[in-house]
Every structure is written in C-alpha cells, then in structure tokens.
C-alpha cells in the first residue's frame, strides 16, 4: 500500500470533519457528553443490582404509567419480546416490578412497580433530575419550554403521539 492510500478499516481521528456537509458537530458531540454524564450516575447504581440501562428504561416507564401493558412497553422501547422478557424476569424476580392480569382482558399483562421498585426508581432519578434542573436553572427564563420543544423535535414524528399519551409534552 502506498503512503497516499488510506486503509478504509481504520478511522483517521486526526482528519478534519467533512467540510462539504452541514453537520451540527458541536451539538452532536455535546449530545454524546451530556448522555454519558446523564446516564453515568444511574449506571453505577444499576450495576450494583446487576442491572443495565434496559432495566432502567423499564423501571422508568412502569413508574411513569403504572398498569402499563407489556405490549405498550414493547412499542415504546422498540425491542423484541425476548429482550423485554429477560429484563422483566430479572426485575420481577428481584421484587422491583409485579405483573398483574388485565381486568377486562385476562390475556393482558399489566406492569406495576412495587414499593421497592418505586424507591429504586426515585434514587435513580434523583441525580438525573438534579443534573437537568441545574442545567435549566443556568438558562434564561422560559428556556425549559425551548428545551422541551427541541427534544420533541428530535423524536420521530410517528412517535410524537406516544409522547402525548405519556404526558411528556404537558410542559409546553
């Protein structure tokens, strides 16, 4: 291989980004660091329970909407039944979530956080809420609504009705 040829399997991290594209590289990079730090504190707590981010996501939505059907959770998380079954089994076996039969449809499985699950979710959420509240407090008045609109704009349009159902857009 000559000195001018590039190995396509190795990224050249020292090369400048493509200039011909209008890439919001600053925002993309900040998303990486914000997400890393936002999840970092919770990850450490989850790891102590032998849980991961999938467990956190399930705990989040089950606490947000007690009695949520498994089918709705599958739709929100966009994961396979097999993946969800493994995570749910661990959360149920550990006493964080309980599964109840639907009142009108006995085939329906409704998910509820136990007291232990609500407390753990509260602990997981505390540092994340603090991080968000601190960041928003350092912004001009009414910035919360701008942040909400920005985040909603990042969600695929076909999923926005789910945001409404989960009451995640009520701050607008």
Description:
- With 172 residues, the protein is mainly α.
- It has a single domain (25-165), classed as Arc Repressor Mutant, subunit A, CATH 1.10.10.10.
- It contains 7 helices and 3 strands, in the order ααβααββααα.
- The protein has a 3-stranded antiparallel sheet with strand order 1-3-2.
- Strand 2 (97-101) and strand 3 form a beta hairpin.
- Helix 2 packs across helix 4 (81-93) and helix 2 (53-64) crosses helix 5.
- The radius of gyration is 20 Å and the shape is globular.
Short structural summary:
The protein is mainly alpha-helical. Helix content is 57%, strand content 7%. α1 (25-48) packs antiparallel against α5, α2 crosses α4 (81-93) and α2 (53-64) crosses α5 (115-137).
Sheet having the most strands: 3 strands, antiparallel
Oligomer: single chain
What order do the helices and strands follow? HHEHHEEHHH
Spans of at least 5 consecutive residues with low confidence: none
The pLDDT mean sits at 90
- Helical segment tally? 7
The N- and C-terminal alpha carbons lie at a distance of: 58 Å
Secondary-structure map:
Layout lengths: L24 H24 L4 H12 L3 E2 H8 L3 H13 L3 E5 L7 E5 L1 H23 L5 H12 L5 H6 L7
Antiparallel strand pairs: 1-3, 2-3
């Amino acid at each position: 291989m000559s000195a001018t040829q590039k190995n396509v399997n190795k990224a050249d991290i020292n090369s400048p980004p493509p200039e011909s594209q209008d890439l919001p590289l600053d925002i993309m990079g900040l998303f990486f660091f914000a997400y890393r730090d936002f999840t970092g504190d919770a990850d450490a707590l989850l790891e102590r329970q032998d849980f991961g981010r999938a467990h956190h996501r399930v705990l989040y939505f089950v606490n947000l909407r007690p009695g949520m059907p498994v089918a709705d959770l599958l739709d929100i998380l966009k994961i396979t039944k097999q993946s969800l079954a493994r995570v749910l089994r661990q959360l149920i076996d550990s006493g964080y979530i309980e599964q109840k039969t639907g009142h009108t449809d006995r085939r329906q499985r409704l998910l509820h956080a136990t007291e232990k699950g609500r407390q753990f979710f509260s602990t997981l959420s505390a540092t994340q809420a603090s991080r968000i509240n601190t960041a928003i407090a350092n912004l001009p008045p009414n910035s919360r609504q701008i942040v909400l609109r920005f985040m909603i704009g990042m969600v695929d349009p076909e999923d926005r009705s789910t945001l409404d159902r989960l009451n995640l857009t009520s701050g607008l």
